[in-house]
Amino acid sequence: MNIIIFGCGISAEKIIRVINKLNVKIIAYADNNLDKVGSRINDTPVISPSEIKGKDFDYIIIGSIYFEEIREQLLNIGIPEERILEYYKYQNFISLRTKLDEYVRNISEYDCLITGMSYAKYGIDLKELKRESFNFALNSQDLFHDYSIVKYLSNRKLLTNINTIIIGLAYYSLEFELIKSREKYLVTRYHPINADLKSNTDYYRKYMNLRTAYADDTFINKVPYLQTVFGTLLEHDYLEKIDDFEDQYIKADNVQWERKELALRHSNKDYPETVEKNVHILERYLNLLKEEAIKPIIVIFPQHKDYTAYFSKTMREDFTSHLERLNATHPFELIDLFDSELVSERDFFDVHHLNHDGAIKVTQLINNRL
Fold first, then answer.
1. Which InterPro entries match (predicted)?
2. For labeling, which of 120, 168, 280, 316 is most exposed (least CB within 10 Å)?
3. pLDDT tens digits, 116-136
């Protein structure tokens, strides 16, 4: 089968790593960046979108998080709908369902859970952790959805064997609400637990509006087809391997500047209502764990010194103050590695996420506290 990958960035690179090379040949990459058009990736040409129709291909896989815009662009230049595969839209939609199914299937094995955003997703090595753990962390997952997942499990008596939960946080976590962020399209992945969210009428209304916008019935009906197609085009364990960065580390020339800019952007948040809401959510989360006799461990994952140097001291102090107040009434263990010297330049696969080596270092430290 001949395919075209739309995109040349890290999102496309992740898909390339899991292509089933026995069944598939990448005949071209397409990109809107004219500086990339005319270049080659592994001796395969990078073409402009206008050249796509002249190619003999079976499918285009959109290797970008801007899949909605690119899909519309491809339709507008006459590419048939059935040949356009929005990988990240599909992966996002099935991500929580896949995790829940796997957890329930092997529930007797686990005594520890992990929740959080991408730092917790990439920053803990489950093979190295001395507890049998399941990781429910997802990219851009906020405290509301951390709590909602665990509450969903509690409501169904699915926490029976769990005695520890690691809550991964960042210093800006209290300022972050997924449904109001630029990553709000990700809320469609929470469809397996939406019945439990109906009592929160304000959230549920926003959620349903976003689900209609980003995962309508047409797309939902297409999911089984996408599962079959991706099962042919990609390696059989692609869902596990696509985020496996092994010992890859970032080598970009401008990484120092990127870390500074990211720290300033993360610091440029001032949402007192969101902070108040998230403090209450974290309090309810800790209450739930107390009721379930589960030990909470809050972990703040390490960042590079080029990031920590520019992160808001005020936000950090406010966050610490909120945690101290909560800890007085809802005891938890805190492992704060934010500016730890535990990690080095080679321990990050991108600007701010730990690679395998970095995750092992963090996991070994967590092991000492379990």
1. DltD
2. 280
3. 999 999 999 999 999 999 999
pLDDT single digits (tens) 5-47: 999 988 899 999 999 999 999 999 999 999 999 999 999 999 9
What is the model's pTM?
0.93
CA atoms within a 13 Å half-sphere pointing along the CA-CB vector of 8:
21
Q: Where are the domains of the chain?
A: 2-88+215-241, 110-176+246-367
The topology (CATH level 3) of 110-176+246-367 is Rossmann fold (3.40.50)
CA dist list (Å): 236 to 2, 13, 18, 134, 242: 18, 18, 9, 21, 11
User: In terms of CATH, what superfamily is 2-88+215-241?
Assistant: NAD(P)-binding Rossmann-like Domain (3.40.50.720)
Which of 243, 239, 244, 295 lies closest to 102, judged by CA? 239
